[in-house]
Amino acid sequence: MAAKKSRKALGRGLGALLQDSETSNKKEQNEELVPASGDKASINEIPVEQIEVNPFQPRTHFDKEALEELAESIRIQGIIQPITVRKLSDDSYQLISGERRTQASKLAGLKAIPAYIRTADDQQMLEMALIENIQRENLNAIEIALSYQRLLTECDLKQEQLGDRVGKNRTTVNNYLRLLKLPPDIQLGLKEKKISMGHARAIINIDDIDKQLSVYKKTVADDLSVRKVEALVRDLVSGKSETKEKKESKELPHEVKSVQNKLSSHFGTKIGLKIDDKNKGEIKIPFLSKDDLNRILDILDVEL
């Protein structure tokens, strides 16, 4: 099989919005996207009391313990990377990026904080806040999906433009957006990390909401792996009723049923096996997605 393509580098969307400044995406103080030190703009010390929160900030919850840890780091080392703001008046500024550092600076007792001052309208503020939010490593899949949706609707971007902004291809963007079609209980399960995006991507292939919820509850209760959920979903979307499957199973001779079970175990999915009186028949191997097809081809050692 061909090797998987390496992850596409992040696009230039945020850097372009920040007047083509370079960006940084490091952990802790460096994790939020800010202009690099080589930017032409000077760094200004701004009183923290003059800095307003970003009204377009898509993230409303910040882990208290993580903020305390960052505050302690700031007490010892100071601010490593300046925040980025826009000027509202002579004594009023609004955050573009750096809300965690600003909150942690207040906890650390700082009176002023280094900042780059930028010019940005409301549309740019929203887009920069959303893109910065998406590029964090600790977002759950629903948070990312909601940010994608807001970029499409509120920033009036097309999917191709959105992909360029966040450095993702259209398929990846679509996979996230599809998660928003799941019932609220399953979306909450994703947020709370009861299931992974792999689980959710399998469940979304079921059209019936009640069946989606049933598979979700079974996944959580039995701690099913993604592969087991994919197999369960394949059985549901194959179009066969449970009664028909039982009937076909009873009609198979014992030795043929044994072969069917072994094939199902080998391929990690319910294998369809038919055989007539002349020992002629067929084997069906269902798959859920392109990735699942590639998995089956790997097992068969088939190269394309």
Automatic annotation (TrEMBL):
Domain (ParB-like N-terminal): residue spans on this chain:
44-134
Q: Which UniProt key words apply to this protein?
A: Chromosome partition, DNA-binding
Which positions, given as ranges, span the membrane?
none
Q: Which Gene3D superfamilies match?
A: 1.10.10.2830, 3.90.1530.30
Q: Give the Basic residues compositional bias ranges.
A: 1-10
For this protein, the record's SUPFAM superfamilies field holds: KorB DNA-binding domain-like, ParB/Sulfiredoxin
**GO cellular component, as recorded:** chromosome
Single Gene Ontology BP term?
A: chromosome segregation
Q: Where is region (Disordered) located?
A: 1-39
Among Pfam families, the record links this protein to:
HTH_ParB, ParB_C, ParB_N
On whether DNA-binding is a keyword of this UniProt record, the answer is: yes
An example Gene Ontology molecular-function term: DNA binding
Q: Which InterPro entries match?
A: Chromosome_partition/occlusion, HTH_ParB/Spo0J, ParB/RepB/Spo0J, ParB/Sulfiredoxin_sf, ParB_dimer_C, ParB_N
Q: Which residues form a coiled coil?
A: none
Q: What family is reported?
A: Belongs to the ParB family.
* The protein's name: ParB/RepB/Spo0J family partition protein
Provenance organism: Marivirga atlantica
